Amino acid sequence: MLTTALTAELAPEICARRATRDDEVADLVSLLLAHADPAAGSMAEIRRVALTVAVASLGDNHLWQDLQFASRAELSALMRRWFPALVAKNHADMKWKKFLYRQLCEREQVLICKSPSCAVCTDFAVCFGPEE
Ligand code: SF4
Question: What is the pTM of this model?
Answer without folding.
Answer: 0.87
